[in-house]
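hey so u asked for the seq, here:
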Amino acid sequence: MPRISTYRLRNVGLRYSQEPGARIPFSEVLEMAGAPVDIGDSPDATVELLHEAGAVETACRVLEDKTFAARVGLSAQGPGTLLAYIVRAAETIEDALALTQRFYAMQDPDLSLDVVGAPDEPRITLESNVIPAHQYPRHREMLIFGLYKRVQQITSGGLAPISIELETDDAEHCRRLAELAGCEVVGFKSGYALALPANGMSFRIPTADPTLLGHLQRHGEEQLKAQPDAVRSLSDRIMDMLGERLPGPIPNGDDIAGELGLTRRTMTRHLSAEGTSFKALLEGVLCDLSKRMLRSGEGVARVAFMLGFADQAAFSVAFKRWTGETPARFRKAGR
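ran it, structure tokens below
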């Protein structure tokens, strides 16, 4: 499981301690989420991404406030990382995103940003192969609202209008978040994204500095070369294997373990140590793939067949468990 800096989690703890509804210490929230209680103050301290996600979800439940995660994202100042300086020195939003895609792995090895949509309707998506959004929706909201805050900062608020897209079907939750962010928040979407105006990608960043950017980029490339090849976690390897086999018959855990040279029990033990399970990884891949297929226009029955479900009914039950809605409704909404 990828490890990331604790700076976001420390900010979650700080904001949590200021909440009137914080009836238990944040250390207990971390313990409930299976995260280390002592996350440390060192800039080099790291934590598993799954533990961060679990802590955010748990904090929202303890506070009984679904908006807490988004408020944390909006309040974060962001780390003083090399990438932050590179983005501020870039000439346009398009350049900043290209550089982010190049260097973001130094900061968050699992999370990825991408630009999708037509040139006059650009959208910045936020994806993770390890943390399924349907299992950790509040964590994904913290990240996307944090991204919105970063865009507002580097453009000095000059890039507008921007809307935030969420998977939730809770219209009241979207309304409350829109009030907090001061922008449109749209639910019933197939993922989490920032929708930019037509000229969004060419927007010139006020702090652009080509000379400084050249120095920063060279430093960034040196850091990338100096990074040791990360030892890939077992969950990362299994996710890749599942992605290669799907769509198709649903892979069997015993077969996957065998290909890895492990017994099923050993694989289960290692995945548990990484904070996940074969079932969770498989369902995350199936959920994301089924949404992409439905979004592309595939029929529900065909998706069920291509993903190896016994019948359409079995797929519909699973899809509703993953997302809270039926695949037919999801497809009709065109999300």
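The first strand starts at residue 3 and ends at 5. The mean pLDDT is 87.
lmk if thats what u needed
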